[in-house]
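dude i think i finally got it to work??
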Amino acid sequence: MDDDPRLARPAALGGERRPGLELAHEVVRRGRGVGASRRDHARDARERLRALAKLLRDDEDLEALGQLLERIEPYAYAQPGALDDSLESAKDREPCGGQLVARVRADDRPDERGRRHGYPPAMDDAAALELAKRAAFRGGRVALAKLGDPGYLTWKGQRDVVTGATLEVQQAIVSVLQNECPDDAILVEEGPEDEPLAVDAERLWIVDPICGTLSFAQGIPFFAVSIALRVEGVLRVGVVYDPIRDETFAATLGAPATLNNRPITVLNTALGPEFWEQAWVATDLPPSGPRREIALRIFGVFAREVLQQYVWGSPALALCYVAAGRIHAYWTLDAKPWDVAAACVILPSAGGLITDADGGSWLHSDGSYVAANPASHQWALRGIKGVQEHERARN
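look at this
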C-alpha cells in the first residue's frame, strides 16, 4: 500500500485548494523532485524533498505547501538556487492567528538570468505592508525566545530601560528591511545617541522593536513590535505585532484596518455622560518629572468618572486595542514617535480619532496623545484639558 496514513488527503481540506494540494500530496508520496532540485546534485535534491515533507505535519501545513507548489511548479526547470527564496518563505511564514500561511512576495519568478526580482525601489503600499509584517514577525519570534531572559539591562532614565534582547530584536527587524530596501532610511528607538537621524528621508521606516520594554524585561507578556513606513512625509503603512497572542494589527493609508487580515473598527456608542461612566480607558504615565505629576492628577479624575482605567505599558498595543473596539479611549502625556507611528496609521483606518492633548494635530504633538472612538474623544479631552488648565492657573 503506497499511501502514507500520516499524510492528510487533499479532499479533506476543501475543493477550492484541491489542485495545489493534490500536487503537494503526490510530491511527498512519490518522492518527486521539485523545481531546481532536478538539476541539483542528488544530495541537494534529498534535502529539498525533506524540507518540503517536513511541512506536512497537519492539514494547515499541507495547504500552505499546496499554495507554494502552485507558485513554483511552472518553473520546475529554473536554474539552481533561483527558487531558494521561495522555499525559505514557506518556512518564514506570516502570523495569522495561529494559521500557517505560505508567504507570497511581489514577484518570486526568476528572470532571464535566473535571479529573483526584488521589490522595485518605490514599492507600493501593499508590498511595503507585507514586508513590514514579515519584519515584525521575525522580530517577534526573537522576542518570544528571549521572554524571561532579557539579557543585560541599561537604564536610560527613571523607568526607562533597554535590554540586551531588545537590541537583538531590533537587529532582526532591520536586517529584513535592509535586505529588501537597502536604500531606505530606518529610524530605530535603540540607536547610538550620537547617530544622525534621517528624519528628512524620502522613505523612512520607523521601528520600535519592543513597545513595552518594562513589561518585557519583567517577563510580563504584554508588548509589541511596531513598524511604520513614512513616504515623502506621509505615514502610509503601519504594522503592530503582538507575538504573545499572534495578533497582527495592520493598515495602509486609505484602506481598512485589519487584525489578522480581518477588518476592525472602533466601538460605536452614543454620546452622553452615562456612556462615559461605562467607558474602559487605558493610559501610560510619564516616567518622571512635572508631566508625571499632572498625569497622575488626570488619572485620578478619570478613575472617578469611568468604569475602568489601566496603566497599559505599551502605547502601540493600547492604540490598536482602541482601533479593534476592545477599549474606548487611550491617553498619554509622554510618548515618542516610534511608540505611536504605526498605530497612528491603523487607528484612523478603523474609524478612530487621535489628537494631541489640546485637540490639535497629533503630527505636531509634544508627546501627548489622546485616542478614542468619536463618542469618547471629546469626553477624554475635556478631562485632560480641565486638569491642565487648572495647573496653568496655579503656576
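Residues 10-91 form one domain.
im so relieved honestly
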